[in-house]
Recover the amino acids of this structure.
């Protein structure tokens, strides 16, 4: 049984570290752009507190070596994220984040260690720290409840990424199994609840993913129909403009033939008439095409700007 729990614990370490390492790409972009953009530092600050406390719990519990190792690695990663965030965050956001770090990661964490080592003895130490760790983990697993409510309300899984839900489900399942094998109540209870919530997330994803695609397909069909109708109107307008242009040309030719015996107008009048006739010769279709092309170029530029801005 000990060998099986060790294998499960190693698998749990690998999966948890992958979850902890998932923001690396985000913070690489922060360093590259030297800006935190719209990112918030609170999730990383609270996760730093959680991993630090679980590391302390692993130190207190002789049989929780694998709990200590994974959370120590997670704490180092979260510390790196928080440090990068504080370096590149705007002044106001940086000040608020620093206050939160001082309150949670220094004040609260330091108080827990001091109370545990000074005021408590024996098993009370492990129970005190275990309860706090379990509550923090429950908060982490309960955080997607708002997203699940949005999925049910909008009938769309747009705001619930499958991979994140799957890895949290897998992580909770592995640590629930580990806790059952080693009989660790504080590790088992929050992870079992996380397993239930993760299962619900996957069920919701399976239920609404096809509806999301169907709604997307309906929108695409509507756009195609609108585009076809738009092109049909363009063709009618173009044909009308061409017929109008032909009639205008014939009329101008007859007018010129009739006026060939008239005196030659002055240079200024020739210029004015020529300019006026060129203005009238621009049909609605050509004006619409010019506007459409300019609008398409602007839209294409906006798309490129958005794409680059989001890379």
């Amino acid at each position: 049984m000990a060998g099986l729990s060790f294998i499960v614990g190693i698998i749990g370490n690998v999966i948890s570290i992958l979850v902890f390492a998932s923001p690396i790409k985000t913070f690489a972009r922060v360093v590259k752009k030297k800006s935190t953009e719209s990112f918030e530092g609170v999730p990383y600050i609270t996760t730093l507190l959680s991993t630090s406390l679980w590391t302390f719990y692993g130190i207190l519990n002789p049989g929780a070596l694998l709990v200590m190792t994974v959370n120590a690695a997670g704490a180092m990663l979260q510390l790196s994220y928080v440090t990068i965030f504080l370096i590149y965050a705007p002044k106001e956001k940086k000040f608020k984040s620093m206050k939160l770090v001082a309150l949670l990661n220094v004040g609260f964490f330091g108080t827990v260690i001091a109370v545990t080592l000074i005021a408590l003895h024996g098993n009370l130490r492990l129970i005190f720290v275990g309860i706090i760790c379990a509550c923090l983990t429950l908060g982490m697993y309960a955080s997607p409840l708002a997203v699940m409510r949005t999925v049910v309300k909008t009938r769309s899984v747009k705001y619930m990424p499958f991979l994140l839900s799957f890895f949290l489900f897998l992580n909770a399942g592995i640590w629930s199994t580990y806790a059952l094998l080693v009989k660790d109540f504080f590790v088992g209870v929050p992870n079992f609840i996380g397993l239930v919530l993760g299962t619900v997330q996957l069920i919701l994803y399976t239920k609404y993913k096809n509806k999301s695609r169907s709604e997307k397909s309906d929108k695409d069909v509507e756009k195609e129909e609108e585009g076809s109708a738009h092109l049909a109107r363009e063709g009618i307008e173009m044909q009308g403009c061409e017929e109008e242009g032909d009639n205008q040309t014939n009329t101008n030719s007859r007018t010129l033939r009739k006026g060939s015996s008239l005196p030659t107008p002055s240079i200024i009048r020739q210029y004015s008439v020529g300019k006026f006739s060129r203005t009238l010769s621009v049909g609605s279709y050509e004006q619409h095409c010019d506007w459409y092309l300019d609008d398409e170029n602007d839209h294409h530029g906006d798309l490129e700007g958005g794409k680059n801005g989001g890379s």
Notes: Residues 2-217 form one domain. The chain has eleven helices and no strands. Confidence is low (pLDDT under 50) at residues 252-311.
